[in-house]
Each structure stands twice: as C-alpha cells, then as structure tokens.
C-alpha cells in the first residue's frame, strides 16, 4: 500500500463526496489555521482505497483537529479488511519516519457508516491503537417521532413538554439575515451557565461557506428564550452543534419544547437521524445532560478515541 501526501485540492479530487462533512478537504482547509500543519493522505495500491486528513499538534497527528470527529474516508463501499490493515500499517510507518510522537483518531459513531466503521475499529485495535476515551453519544432517529411520541418519552419529560406547550412558546426558523439571534442566545446561555463557547460568530459564518446550517429560535411574548444551531453533516443526518435556553425562562421548560419542535421539523424534512452529540467529556458523564437526552427519546451510541504512541 502506497501513501500519497497531496494538497487540499487534490484530496478533494480523490474524495469529492465524503460520507460526512468533517472529512471534506474544504472543511479542513478552512480550519487549517487551528493546527501547525495539515496532512492530506491518500492510500493507494492498484486503486485509491482510503484517505484521511490529519492536523499536527505538539508533534502528534490528530484526526480531527477541529471537529467533533474525523477518521478514515473510503473511496467506495467495497474496501476490504486487508486493505484497511495495509493502509494503517503504511500510516504507522510514515508517521514513525516523520518522528511524530503519536497518532490520534476519533471516528464518528457507528450510525454514520456502520459496516465500514466497525471494520476500522477492529483494524485499529489489532494495529496496536489504544482506546483513550469512550464518549457516550446521543442521537434521535426521526422514525421515533410519531403521534405517540409524547406518550412514549419519560414521565418527567412528558410532564415538562405539556407545561411548555401551555406556556405560549413559539418556534421559529431563522433566515440567514437574522441567524445571529440564535447564536446570541447560545452565547448568553453559555455565559450564564459558565460553559465555554468554542466558536465565535465569525467562525460560524466562515463554516457556513462549506457546511449547510439551520438556525432556530424559541420565543415567549416576543422575547427570545432558547435557540439551536444545526449543521447538515451527512446524507439524511444533521447534528445539533449548539442548543440551549436562557436560565431566566427555564421554568417554562423551553428545552423540552425546543427539542420537540426540532424533532418534528426534521421529521418533516425527511432527515433520518438528529445527532445531538456527546454528554461526556474525556469519558466522564454530565449526568443531567445524559438524563435529559434519554428522557426525550434519544438513543445512545459510542464515539471512541484511539491513540497510538510512536517510538
């Protein structure tokens, strides 16, 4: 197996339609300033088989370097185990020759491409990669949003949703011209709760050049009370990048209302999965977030971080 170091444009030619947007050359090129160097790698024998994009940080190569997940991209659905094994072996040799200290890979949860990702996990494990974190990821399959949805969620969530629906809340999709209203609510939510907000509004705007996004607002008596920012990340899959409410309006159970309306909206749009993201950090759960997401009907998958130290 041969490894090719190419530039972003060449990588985009090899992989014009990656299975998830964080593996695209355009997304990684846009964020290239967030690491010391970006490596666009293509693995080829008789044909191109796989690709992966790494960022260099502290003499370690990491995928992703500025996204929720990254990992390998397959040229087609017929990539075989022995081809993945050969690509990983070639990658380790290449990284060792470059005198990098280690390789970190975080692939998406299995529902993004189940068969391929299961093969990747097996091959990484057998190649000596260590499991350094196992995050609990939450997603909502829109098939579960039926007429009986409200009766099938947890009792407390059912009670909170009923309370929210009686509070005069209004759900609104924002246009590109007023999308910042949603971001401002998120920023206030994070500030008041003491949580970091990793993307500035300018960075969100930059990302919109390569990722389709939706912005939503919840209002009560014309006052913004909650918001959501959602990216289209794969075919029939969206990911909630940010959502939150203002603590002053929490008594109206705005998050139960917001999640209900977001689920309904994407069910109507034909989206199959709404990726809500992890509720763990470095494998440690935020119990409140875990319980909330389970209570509204989310399913749980794992997102594993693999690391291989190099001598």
What does this structure look like?
This protein is an alpha+beta fold. The chain is 33% helix and 32% strand. Strands 1, 2, 3, 4, 5, 6, 7, 8, 9, 10, 11, 12 and 15 form a 13-stranded mixed sheet that branches. Strands 13-14 form a two-stranded antiparallel sheet. Helix 3 packs across helix 4 and helix 6 crosses helix 9.
Task: Throw out a few tags for this protein.
2 domains; alpha+beta; 311 residues; 13-stranded mixed sheet; Aminopeptidase; two-stranded antiparallel sheet
Helix-and-strand structural type: alpha+beta
The general outline is elongated
The value of Rg in angstroms is 21 Å
Q: Residue ranges: pLDDT <50 for 5 or more in a row?
A: none
For the biggest sheet, the summary is:
13 strands, mixed
Overall structural domain count: 2
Q: Specify the CATH class of the largest domain.
A: Alpha Beta
Short description:
The chain has helices at residues 8-14, 25-30, 81-97, 114-126, 149-152, 155-165, 180-193, 201-207, 254-268, 287-295; strands at 2-6, 37-44, 48-57, 60-63, 73-74, 102-106, 130-141, 169-173, 213-220, 223-234, 237-245, 273-278, 280-281, 284-285, 299-309. It has 311 residues and is of the alpha+beta class.
How would you summarize the topology of this molecule?
Blueprint: E1 2-6, H1 8-14, H2 25-30, E2 37-44, E3 48-57, E4 60-63, E5 73-74, H3 81-97, E6 102-106, H4 114-126, E7 130-141, H5 149-152, H6 155-165, E8 169-173, H7 180-193, H8 201-207, E9 213-220, E10 223-234, E11 237-245, H9 254-268, E12 273-278, E13 280-281, E14 284-285, H10 287-295, E15 299-309
Parallel strand pairs: 4-6, 11-12
Antiparallel strand pairs: 1-2, 2-3, 3-4, 3-5, 6-15, 7-12, 7-15, 8-9, 9-10, 10-11, 13-14
Helix pairs in contact: 3-4, 6-9
């Amino acid at each position: 197996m041969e490894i090719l170091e190419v530039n972003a444009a060449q990588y985009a030619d090899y992989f014009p339609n990656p299975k998830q947007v964080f593996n695209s050359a355009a997304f990684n090129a846009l964020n290239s300033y967030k690491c010391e160097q970006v490596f666009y790698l293509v693995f080829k024998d008789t044909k191109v088989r796989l690709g992966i994009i790494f960022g260099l940080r502290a003499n370690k190569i990491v995928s992703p370097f500025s996204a929720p997940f990254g990992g390998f991209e397959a040229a087609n659905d017929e990539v075989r185990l022995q081809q993945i094994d050969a690509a990983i072996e070639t990658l380790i040799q290449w990284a060792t020759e470059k005198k990098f200290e280690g390789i970190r890979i975080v692939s998406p949860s299995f529902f993004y491409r189940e068969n391929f990702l299961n093969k990747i996990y097996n091959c990484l494990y057998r190649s000596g990669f260590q499991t350094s974190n196992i995050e609990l990821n939450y997603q909502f399959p829109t098939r579960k949003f039926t007429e009986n949805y409200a009766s099938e969620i947890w009792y407390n969530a059912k009670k909170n949703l009923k309370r929210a629906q009686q509070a005069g809340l209004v759900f609104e999709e924002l246009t590109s011209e007023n999308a910042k209203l949603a971001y401002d609510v998120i920023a206030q939510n994070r500030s008041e709760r003491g949580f970091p907000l990793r993307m500035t509004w300018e960075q969100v705007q930059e990302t919109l050049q390569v990722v389709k996004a939706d912005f939503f607002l919840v209002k009560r008596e014309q006052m913004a009370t909650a918001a959501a920012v959602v990216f289209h990340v794969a075919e029939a899959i969206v990911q909630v990048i940010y959502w939150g409410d203002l603590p002053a309006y929490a008594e109206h159970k705005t998050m139960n209302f917001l999640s209900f309306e977001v689920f309904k909206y994407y069910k109507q749009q034909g989206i199959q999965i709404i990726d809500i993201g992890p509720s763990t950090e470095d494998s440690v759960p935020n119990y409140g977030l875990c319980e909330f997401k389970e209570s509204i009907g989310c399913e749980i998958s794992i997102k594993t971080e693999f690391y291989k130290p190099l001598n």
